[in-house]
Design a protein that fits this description.
single chain; Immunoglobulin-like; 5 domains; 9-stranded antiparallel sheet; 7-stranded mixed sheet; 53% strand; rod-shaped
């Protein structure tokens, strides 16, 4: 190591005015530190905005090969003049000192240098040559998104542009973004906030729209960039305006439909079959009885309606069946004329019998000639009631209709004649008393309170019904059809608890008899019994 020396001598001194001679004093050496050389470098030059930059100062003895200098380095930037740039940085054991700017430097070019500050007199300070550090604008990337794609008809869509610095650049770009739809700028450019810009677009027509976002850059800090083209799909809206009711007996039903734009075309699918082009009005091919579904969607360009409608319906071309119609006297019915019930059976190929609706009619025979059919009524049950006048021959017919409007053929009953047999037509055991009763049939009844007392009616016909008052104060009877024969039918009836209560009630009904001579016998079991009469069916 080269050092510089300076030798000085002390010549003489006088003491008490006497000049004394002395030997020459020893030489004293003043040591001056070693020369140094300082250099400065940058790890990225040029750099871009936001890119981390590290300056490194290297201090060596001059000429090289001596001890490693100690001390610190002060980095400086020319404003001008040169001013300290950050705090002093200690040299490491290799004579290096680094200053990092993790967030990068301002755009443009600046001059930097490094000044070595020795720790002691062993080394002499030195200053590096000047370094010109340039910082270029950072490249950017603009991305574009849609909050609803595809969007529904009439739905507002928010487009969001995000601008980011392209690595190694950093920071959050600012400036403006110009949105464009189908090549047309959408109003003024939108200022970035936190690197984002937003456009709310309403009223986009059905079809495809090409959307871009162009970032205009910012003052040499961030470069311009344009997003990739976003294809925004706006679905058309499909409406089926007419079609068959839920149930139809037409196997080639017609449909009408439209879209919210005249440029739309349509695709149809019946019963989940393949989609095929179609137009309105649309007539289906012949369909089998059963459940069906038509799907129709509008298409604009390549954009289909994503929420297209369905039309569900049933085809039923088969009429229901109505049969086994019968007439019986109505148990519990109240006599003014003859209360009857009409029964029948009905079935359908697609629906339950309970879902069928029924219409019934009646006619009567006058002077040997059947009169025109008359409306009886409409019912949802498999029965109907009627009050048939006595002595006239009546006939009934019924037909059923399904939900699709298919009517069955008329089913007719056998002709029915009812004969009134009041209490005077019976034969009695001893002591039955005939007296008036309010509301009774012809105002008279026969009364007996003795157990075992009986009344008997012989008749010719196919059925018979017993007429008596019911309710509180009435006794209990035994009723037998054709007593004493092999075909005897008997039952016990408590008239006090019989429901419904009232005068002139049919308390026992026997039907489906072979046409011929029969008898009905009433026997007192307990209490007081009042006999009003019977109705014979022929």
């Amino acid at each position: 190591m080269t050092r510089r020396s300076l030798v000085s001598f002390v010549a003489s001194a006088s003491l008490a005015g006497v000049m004394l001679a002395s030997a020459p004093p020893p030489a004293v050496g003043l040591v001056i530190g070693a020369d140094t050389a300082t250099t400065i470098s940058s790890n990225h030059n040029p750099s871009v905005v936001g890119q981390s930059v590290t300056f490194t100062a290297t201090v060596m003895t001059d000429p090289p090969g001596g001890a490693v200098p100690t001390g610190t380095v002060q980095f400086e930037r020319s404003s001008p003049p040169f001013l300290p740039y950050g705090d002093q940085v200690p040299l490491n054991l290799s004579g290096l000192a680094s200053l990092e700017q993790p967030n990068g430097l301002s755009p443009g070019c600046d001059t930097f240098r490094a000044v070595y500050v020795p720790a002691d007199t062993n080394f002499i300070a030195s200053t590096s040559a000047e370094l010109t550090q340039c910082v270029n604008a950072a490249a950017t990337t603009t991305s574009l998104t849609s909050d609803h794609n595809p969007s529904a008809p009439g739905q507002a869509v928010t487009f969001s542009a995000t601008v980011t610095a392209h690595p190694p650049g950093g920071g959050t770009p600012d400036g403006d973004v110009q949105f464009s739809i189908d090549g047309v700028n959408q109003g003024a450019a939108v200022t970035l906030v936190g690197g984002k810009a937003v456009l709310l677009a309403a009223g986009l027509a059905p079809g495809e729209h090409l959307v871009t976002a162009a970032y205009g850059g910012h003052g040499g800090i961030y470069e311009t960039s344009t997003s990739s083209t976003l294809t925004q799909q706006v679905e058309p809206d499909t409406t089926i305006t007419t079609g068959p009711s839920e149930w139809t007996n037409h196997n080639t039903p017609a449909f009408e439909f439209h879209a919210d734009t005249p440029s739309a075309t349509f695709e149809c699918s019946m019963d989940s079959g393949p989609l095929a082009p179609c137009t309105s009005p649309y007539h289906s091919a012949a369909l089998a009885d059963g459940s069906h579904n038509l799907f129709v969607r509008a298409v604009v360009g390549s954009v289909p309606d994503g929420d297209a409608p369905n039309w569900s319906f049933f085809v039923d071309t088969t009429a229901p069946y109505t049969g086994y119609a019968e007439v019986e006297q109505q148990l519990g019915g109240q006599v003014s004329s003859g209360p009857i019930e009409i029964y029948w059976q009905a079935t359908d190929n697609l629906i339950k019998p309970q879902q069928l609706h029924h219409e019934w009619q009646w006619r009567k025979k006058v002077s040997g000639v059947w009169q025109a059919w008359q409306a009886g009524g409409s019912v949802d049950e498999l029965e109907a009631t009627f009050s048939q006048p006595f002595l006239k021959l009546y006939q009934y017919r019924i037909r059923s209709v399904d939900l699709a409007g298919n009517w069955s053929v008329w089913e007719e009953t056998d002709p029915v004649k009812l004969l009134a047999k009041q209490e005077t037509a019976f034969t009695y055991s001893a002591s039955w008393v005939r007296h008036t009763m309010s509301g009774a049939w012809a105002n008279y009844v026969r009364t007996r309170a003795k157990v075992g007392a009986w009344a008997r009616l012989a008749f010719t016909g196919t059925g018979v019904a017993l007429v008596m008052p019911t309710g509180a104060g009435q006794g209990t009877i035994s009723v037998c059809l054709d007593p004493g024969t092999a075909g005897q039918q008997c039952s016990t009836i408590n008239l006090a608890t019989f429901s419904p209560t009232g005068v002139r009630r049919l308390v026992a009904v026997f039907g489906d008899l072979v046409l011929g001579k029969h008898a009905i016998k009433v026997t007192v079991v307990s209490g007081t019994v009042n006999l009003d009469g019977a109705i014979v069916r022929q």
